[in-house]
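Example record

Each entry pairs one chain with its bound ligand, glutamic acid.
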Amino acid sequence: MEQLSTRIKALAPSATIAMNQKSQELKAKGVDVINLSVGEPDFPTPVHIREAAKKAIDGNFSHYAPVPGYPDLREAIAMKFRRENNLDYKPSQIVVSTGAKHALANAMICLVDNGDEVIIPAPYWVSYVEQVKIAGGENVILETSVEDDYKLKPEQLRAAITPRTKVLLLCSPSNPTGSVYTGEELRALAEVIAENERVFVIADEIYEHINFSGGHQSIARFESIHDRVVVINGVSKAYAMTGWRIGYLAGPEWLAKACSKLQGQMTSGATSIAQRAALAALTEDQSCVKEMADAFLRRRNLILDHLKEIEGIRYNVPGGAFYVFPDFSHYIGRSVNGKKIENDMDLCLYLLEDAHIATVPGSAFGAEGCVRISYANSDDNLNKAMQRLKDALAGLK
Ligand code: PMP
Ligand code: GLU
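Structure tokens for the complex follow.
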């Protein structure tokens, strides 16, 4: 008999990972699936970063790394914050973890007590709400609209804050909508946070460098709330290093210490070799970051050209990240081969099984009727996939 804890029974599996797995299974059976489900750069990790990892192996970086990360890596991260974000963090305020996902989980568990409320604007990335559950918190989901470019408004935030509110989770550039908050929009949200002394901000900035709408802005730069912001970032997206599993957080020293304590009981320091690779990524030639971001911009435009031709869908023009998130509600309720498409999950399964394109249903991101399409794929594959999408939608009656 299964004897799982209520905590784990309440947890939903990651939909992004599930759709990626389904896509890979079909591919292994020889089906020509185009995978637009999981969000990861399709580029290989740049050569100089791979070389640094090889050197680390030969240099015998094979022992436990310090729990919060090697001192020189944390120094390099502090320099990155100074260089790119005009933010001043000491290495003691930084913790390196096993991916940004782990950094987020550390912050969540260290900040949120049983019954604390965490405000999350929807559409949201799938893992936020599940991590809140693990921490024992309660999700307070605030709907945003396509007309507002899926951005949270300050008055909406103010109205949602209660004495139990502990955290606002903000992701910019956003997964899944690609929305990017401007400095002024962040300032207005920061003013609301400043009025509420108990509230923290977890700022997920993992897509910082994939931004087509001007420079990245961090909510941590507002002095009035700086001590109540924890910034999450990592090397996965900017340097095409998803498999290396290096992320980090920066925030008040007491929080960094707590995250390090937690990590010391859960995983210890992140992989030593990957940390040396991350050090090279952050300190050596940065031109690879721009080259990849330029390719993502070209692909975004390519996808938008295709979307224009699809009748009845609604979407925002993403200012960053590598996703489009159209609302396909127009097609829900239609049928194909005697089978009715009841919801976005049915639509994604139809797209996977009949059109052989893997996407992720919007309901996993708190937005029913939408579908997330990752354009972190080759131009050829994207053109092919979008044609398949158009044909599949035309087949729904
Ligand atoms: N935050 C967001 C919004 C993401 O899309 C991802 C990608 N999985 C992560 C965090 C986690 O990144 P990592 O792969 O470094 O754990
Ligand atoms: N961030 C990616 C995504 O949203 C990776 C998969 C995951 O970790 O959820 O698809």
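The domain at 47-283 is CATH 3.40.640.10 (Aspartate Aminotransferase; domain 2).
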